[in-house]
């Protein structure tokens, strides 16, 4: 059971962010982030203009605050071909309509941290992305010193794919960022050099097995002329099964690395 410092038992529920959240949303962003967001951004969030969002509220929060935001996630759908992660996708240029969900902001007010609220909000965003058939990934940037957030994304199985030098400029100082990505709908990255080598080895192995099986089949044909006389029909199904097994293991090996 969730426990808040010396108070009630929270009952967390999730809902879309709406116009009545404007003031609180702006205040929490101001409290949680070193970056100032423009008023227009908050208006776009609460009116759902080009931005999708999820809010968390504590239904058991006293003093009329039971519908007040205590956490949020905002995101935007972007075209994969226009994004900075295009090269990290298994991109089919004939399908230029592929999209991504880019997480813009994520936050939970201090007293509600470590209850799994951010994890739930991220899961919502992933579910949302996975339900868009042409969406290939969810991705985001995180400032390099934000250990709680980095821990969270790793825990949620996001992959850290890049470190971007001096990505942020805050109060006159540059900070690096990490780029995290979570693939959906088969949008996995193209092969790394190591994966390519392993793929080649797998193909070489399956090619060798195929050649061996052909040789073996030729040998068997010679034998079967003799065997047919004794056990007619029993050899052919056995050989077919063997071929299916070889094909399966070849395909399975391929899938692992592609
Ligand atoms: C990052 C943040 C959204 C996490 O919210 P949350 O609701 O507390 O997250 P969850 O409860 O779902 O999960 C938190 C995970 O981070 C871990 N964590 C929390 N504080 C941590 C810390 N200081 N160092 C390392 N890990 C930490 C928790 O232990 C938990 O992991 P676990 O389940 O393995 O224990 C919240 O700390 C926050 O709002 N921070 C300020 C805004 C921010 O940095 N947003 C992210 C911008 S990219």
Automatic annotation (TrEMBL):
Keywords: Acyltransferase, Chromatin regulator, Chromosome partition, Transferase. Belongs to the acetyltransferase family. NAA60 subfamily. GO terms for molecular function: histone acetyltransferase activity; protein N-terminal-methionine acetyltransferase activity. Its EC number is 2.3.1.259, 2.3.1.48. Residues 12-201 form the N-acetyltransferase domain. GO terms for cellular component: Golgi membrane. This is N-alpha-acetyltransferase 60. Coiled coil: none annotated. Pfam families: Acetyltransf_1 (PF00583). It catalyses: L-lysyl-[protein] + acetyl-CoA = N(6)-acetyl-L-lysyl-[protein] + CoA + H(+); N-terminal L-methionyl-[transmembrane protein] + acetyl-CoA = N-terminal N(alpha)-acetyl-L-methionyl-[transmembrane protein] + CoA + H(+). One of its GO terms (biological process) is chromosome segregation. CDD domains: NAT_SF. It comes from the Eukaryota.
